[in-house]
Amino acid sequence: MTDLLLNLADAVAPSRANGPGARAVLWAQGCSLQCRGCHNPQTWGPAPRRICTVHAAASWVRSFRGLRGVTLSGGEPFEQALGFATLCRALRAEGADIVAFSGFTREEIEGDVRPHARALLAEVDLLIDGRYEAELAARLPLRGSSNQRLHFLTNRIRPDEIEGLPAVEWIGKGERARVTGFVLRALGPRTAEGRA
Ligand code: SF4
């Protein structure tokens, strides 16, 4: 576990707009899908941005008291599937639930569209799948466009628990302050950074 590396765009906690309860959110750096209208194009490039070991990421998550789970966003978590699978397996064994956003469909992931994709899927409790389609932009819980789907893969997260989540939130103060969530749903198109 300690030798695997993750390339992250960012990481914040606690978040309440990226799944049920208080969560740690890790944004993968690197996404080959390049959806038109993506709100996070700065996460597309595969070059190293914030490199950390899986062990360090797990320790960072554990440093927050009272977190319910972890959310993987991006960028594309399934393009770093082995590292995230290892991280999620360790945290899930300690009781965390896992939410993952992916531009790949569930069917693509189940077909191992990228190395170890199915191994990561096995550690996910709620998958939100599908490319962002700008012409299908919608105001739906945890989704930016209406083609994207919610897959409740275990009974750790219930459908009713994602109703009423804040669409966007501010986390932190000063230079470290940032907006997370679904900007389209809250503010209309392209007014701030956020998950497409
Ligand atoms: S919307 Fe998601 S899958 Fe699409 S380019 Fe942006 S980060 Fe990648």
From TrEMBL:
Cofactors named for this entry: [4Fe-4S] cluster
Keyword hit for S-adenosyl-L-methionine: yes
Domain of life: Bacteria
Keyword 4Fe-4S: yes
Swiss-Prot/TrEMBL keywords: 4Fe-4S, Iron, Iron-sulfur, Metal-binding, S-adenosyl-L-methionine
Any one GO molecular-function label of the UniProt entry: [formate-C-acetyltransferase]-activating enzyme activity
InterPro entries: Aldolase_TIM (IPR013785), NrdG (IPR012837), Organic_radical-activating (IPR034457), rSAM (IPR007197), rSAM_sf (IPR058240)
Name by which UniProt lists this protein: Radical SAM protein
Species: Polyangium jinanense
